[in-house]
Amino acid sequence: MTNQHDNQALPPKTCTIERLVTVPADIEKVLSGKKTATRRNGRYADVGEIMELQGHKFVVEKVYSQSLGELTDEHAKQEGYETVEEYKESILSYHPGMPWLPQMRVWVHEFRPVLD
Hints:
By secondary structure, the protein is α+β, with helices and mostly antiparallel strands. It has helices spanning about 25-30, 75-80, 85-95, and strands at about 35-40, 50-55, 55-65, 105-115.
């Protein structure tokens, strides 16, 4: 796993930060501090970019690529789940028919609350 902090080393974004966390249950997890990362099939944010959810701001601290086979229970906890299996079941329920392939790569966006 490679953590890249230099946005210039990253490929162009494929979406906007406003679409990073959109599922109501996930928004609640972020607001309660249970979710501190989101994995997407594209890059939605740059390091330092601000995400706003219901009037609360979160800064993206890390953006890096990871394979699904690298996921651990600790990574699942970042997503607000107890285990990789629980996270996997949730993702596959949102994307019926999507294969879960260990070599499939996703973009990890780690964030933290902005303290005013």
